[in-house]
Amino acid sequence: SQWGEENLQALSIQEGEDVTMNCSYKTYTTVVHWYRQDSGRGPALIILIRSNEREKRSGRLRATLDTSSQSSSLSITAAQCEDTAVYFCATDADQGGRALIFGTGTTVSVSP
Amino acid sequence: EAAVTQSPRSKVAVTGGKVTLSCHQTNNHDYMYWYRQDTGHGLRLIHYSYVADSTEKGDIPDGYKASRPSQENFSLILELASLSQTAVYFCASSDIQNTLYFGAGTRLSVL
């Protein structure tokens, strides 16, 4: 498997709280993608971080990448109910050099 | 307007029957993919293609065939559907930065 064993499967929080989810990967990658999947829909890219970046921000999202420990994290600041979704990390570890390998995902539930 | 469209959105098939899932993209992307989603397994790559008339195996190709007759169209074929192939199937295309654009998925139930 591309992924380590410590990926958290589900997180439940209340509106306004911060949440962080983690991914670890076993083989070298040049980029980590984070996708969000809403119920009944396909995943969509929310943030991408490359190996030459330690941190990347987009609105209330913050991604980190530690190539030495082969791990990445995604944080959501001041979570809102509409942040409820499944979040996947994915790397470009090789399948012909283009296909992404996805982790098992973290389900985030935000309640009012 | 959806750039990756899948059909059908849901399908009930009988064991041993043939199933064809279709995907059409208007992104003008060269790469297209078929992923399978099962609870607890995330998304797993079945087949992909980087040019018309050519397909490549992904991580779990057994029991599946793929067809790419044109840049826009990519099909997934289950010649002999089995119970274990009950899942949600996603098609995607990718841009030059390798960002994937997914369709809405096809929910397949094999009975």
Explain what you see:
The complex is a heterodimer of chains A (112) and B (111). With 112 residues, chain A is mainly β. Chain A has no helices and 10 strands. Chain A is globular, with a radius of gyration of 13 Å. The mean pLDDT of chain A is 88. With 111 residues, chain B is an all-beta fold. Chain B is 0% helix and 56% strand. Chain B has no helices and 11 strands. Chain B has strands at residues 4-7, 10-13, 19-25, 31-38, 42-51, 54-57, 65-67, 73-78, 87-94, 100-102, 106-110. In chain B, the strands form 2 sheets. In chain B, strands 2, 4, 5, 6, 9, 10 and 11 form a 7-stranded mixed beta sheet that branches. In chain B, strand 5 (42-51) and strand 6 (54-57) form a beta hairpin. Chain B starts with a strand and ends with a strand. The model of chain B has no long low-confidence stretch (mean pLDDT 94). Classes of the chains: A mainly beta (112), B mainly beta (111). The A-B interface holds A 9, 31, 33, 35, 40-45, 48, 88, 90, 92, 95-96, 98-105 and B 4, 31, 33, 35, 40-45, 48, 50, 56, 58-59, 90, 92, 94, 97-105.
Task: Tag the structure with descriptive keywords.
heterodimer, A: mainly beta, 6-stranded mixed beta sheet, 4-stranded antiparallel beta sheet, B: 111 residues, mainly beta, 11 strands
Write the topology of this structure.
The complex is a heterodimer of chains A (112) and B (111).
Chain A: E1 10-14, E2 19-24, E3 31-37, E4 44-50, E5 55-58, E6 61-66, E7 71-76, E8 85-91, E9 101-102, E10 106-111
Parallel strand pairs in A: 1-10
Antiparallel strand pairs in A: 2-7, 3-4, 3-8, 5-6, 6-7, 8-9, 8-10
Chain B: E1 4-7, E2 10-13, E3 19-25, E4 31-38, E5 42-51, E6 54-57, E7 65-67, E8 73-78, E9 87-94, E10 100-102, E11 106-110
Parallel strand pairs in B: 2-11
Antiparallel strand pairs in B: 1-3, 3-8, 4-5, 4-9, 5-6, 7-8, 9-10, 9-11
